[in-house]
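Complex record, three chains
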Amino acid sequence: MKRKFVPWMFLLLPLILYTIWVIAPTIYTFYLSFTEWDGLTSPQFIGLENYKYLFDDPTFYKSLINNLKWLIIFLAFPVVVGLFLAMLLSQDIKWARGFKASIYSPMILAPVVIGLIWSWIYQPQGGLLNNTLTYIGLKSLTRGWLSNPETALYAVIGAAVWRHTGYVMLLFLAGLTSISPTVIEASKIDGASAWQRFRFIILPLLKPTTVIVIVITMIQSLRAFDFVSMMTRGGPFNSTNVLAFYMYSEAFRNYNMGYGAAIAVILFLIMFVFIALYLRQIRKGELE
Amino acid sequence: MELTIKQKKKIRRAAIFTALLLFVLVWLLPVFGALLTSFRTMDDLMNNGFWRMPEKITFKNFGTAWSEGRLNRYLLNSFIITIPSLIGTLALSSMVGFALAKYKFKGNMALYLMFVAGMLIPFQILLIPVFKLSNELGIYNSYWGLIMIHLVFQMGFCSFFLRNYMITIPDELSEAARIDGASEFRIFYQIYLPLSKPALAALGTLEFTWIFNDYIWALVLLRDDKLKPVTAGLATLKGNFITSWSVLVAGAILATLPTIFVFIFLQKYFIKGLTMGSGK
Amino acid sequence: MNIKKIFVVMTIMVFVFAMTGLAVAKDTLVVNTYTSDPAPRKAMQELVVQYEELNPEVDVELNITAHEDFKKAIRVWLSSDNPPDVFSWFAGNRAEYFVDKGLIMDISDVWESENFYEKFPKAFQSISVFDGKAYFLPHNYYWWSVFYRESIFAEYGLEEPQTWEELLTLGETLKENGITPFAIGTKFRWTAAAWFDYLNLRINGHDFHMKLMHGEIPFTDERVADVFKKWKYLIENDFFVEDAAAYSWQEGLQFLSRGDAAMYLMGQFILDATSEEVSNDLNFFRFPIIDASVPVAEDLPTDGFMVPAKAPHPELAKDFIAFLGSVEGQRIFGEDLGRLVTNKDMSADIYDATTNKGRTMIEATDKLAQFYDRDMSPELADKTMNSLMEFWHNPANYKQIMEQMESHRQRFID
């Protein structure tokens, strides 16, 4: 009888705090999304108005599309390159440790710090990128990377990619070490080519890691905020806006708290798909 | 000319090595660029560009960022916020992790999944209510407001992490202790906690950098400049030294010193933390 | 590493920090301002020191936040239960907006006791007094005009243009000599809004401009198109520096400082940010007349101070406000920054020659506006300034931009 309460003894305080700071706020945001609230007077219930407005709001779609672009680039570059680097570095290469450390070192830096440094790199006058291009004779390519709406988003994502790639590489490296060398040796004896070995042996064995990497990458790209806030504040004219930042600026700059909450809810629902995927993967792992 | 397998292998390795070396050099260009900028004056940079020999090397940018830019204050604030959050979240999460790993009870799986979900949700969904909550609790614009949200929000990941670590610790130890009449709390405190040291070290290192690097909560929950952690402080610096990129970049470098310290001395734990948490 | 040791060290650190935190329990007056550029920052700091010397029992804590961050943070401060006691703010719609929300303390008693109704020119009452109650303390104001490098004008034998045609001719001459006519940095957008203000004031006049700012006239009005057409001509003919959107207004200054550009449409505070050498070479002229039949109007933004409704120390705050309205509380801004100050008792000889020239210009002006994002509701201004940036990038699209601005206005009036 008493034993039944034992786990709750450990869980009581954490759960109370978790309810106050995480669960209740999540639910409250759902409620707020049905209200109009300027953050000062009390929230007015307006039903689905915020959502109607949202689905008619070009900036919302712009931000959503930017999030999607972010996601696609994140899946393409850091994941592929990260895997490739992990494959190379898992071999017996001189200085491998140093190379690994160099590649993942950006991820230890705060996004704000990276955002600041890359803003400087992209600065049209005096910045590293334009200077280098001029120096190697490609002056025609120079531009205001962050002020040009055609390049701004990619410039911001570039900084984020620089931070994320090392993380992916580390995860794959960890996954690769868990593959037993005998499997690989056996395939070598069977005469499989390097590509075959990668495609038919290593990749399937890496599947659990790959799922995690993809989910984490998706979540990272949907959460993107710091880079945008530091580098462009969503500008020029929303060309780099993403949902997380749009939510923030509506809620805390224009004080449409209800509307901001509605954007947060949509963001939450989109991410929930990935979260559910992740949870399923974890449960599967538990049942095994 | 026929090459032996060994020779082939050697050439291949050399090629990979060279490619990697070039890649890493380009990869670290932003870091070199930042260092180069921070030791030069703005006039020098504007007149001569990046790829010329600097006219002179100066440490003044660091001094300016440190005192006029108040990086000294901001860095101190970062520690004041990070350390209690870190200790608190590790303490509470190890309790959660222990309960979830070592007791079978109804709702165990559900709670576990809840914490996992909690570590993945977009924190934007919490911004408005937590701002309101902090205000009502009277901890808006104080270190406590930030400490509490970090402490609680990070519990999601930490509980997940520690639960998965503790579940691998064999049950025999606790059974033996129980027979000796040890209380459940003692079992947790004297057996499982010490045995989880490697996990706590890895997690602590990782969480340190995460909490230290937070920006959005500091933006929302603080008003006074004197309370800001270094991330929000850098944003202020960017506003105040808007034309002096060399001061800004020097500030950015100063802001990363603690995390660089972690990188150099606790790298092992950091990597372990990252891969242990998601390697499952 | 030994985990226990780390824990012990960390716990000790926490205690030390907690103790230092407790030590500051004295009552202080908290003042938050956006005077973040070096010169105004110094002036504000000196002002506070001056006040503390006069009131040794009061401790003033001055928090200076960069302009753009300040605008964002202010609402959070005001809606929290722990706002600053006094904060700097902009006259106009931006001030009225907070007053309407009940966030600002009525400071009529200070206006009465200090006789500000008499000491400030009457015009300032309309931006400070709402429904018979005073909420705003107008402190200083400045003019906008076209600042230019005298040395460049002298080198090419140019004269200050009075009319639009003269400006265009002058611009062509500059371009022929490899100099961009106008420096600008539009990263934070309002520098572009200044161009909209001036073109609209010169083409359509003050009444139309104010109605447009208040959302009473559609942006699709043909008269607005005239503004965009003139502006489009300038952009398409390279009157502005390249990649303007990449620079803050201060970074835009580098073109002027280096002599790559000759002019900059800017407020008097441009002189805060330029080096002494450049400042001495800067002069200004009134934005050229486009239609001689339109009465001359200028942007004349006023900066001042307010007390939040929930200010923790209202009595101290009001005392500080009284000081800010006094001659002593305004001298530094007039003397060191060259701002015009509101107290009529201030002797005119504290101003330097440039400021006096500005005063003369204002006195010959028919109508005054504040500024684009001060006259317009903050949210509408925020959204339409995005449209202005889009126009800048693609001026040929101005019709579409006007429609976009109009749709923002429609949502605003709903």
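Note: Chain B has a mean pLDDT of 88.
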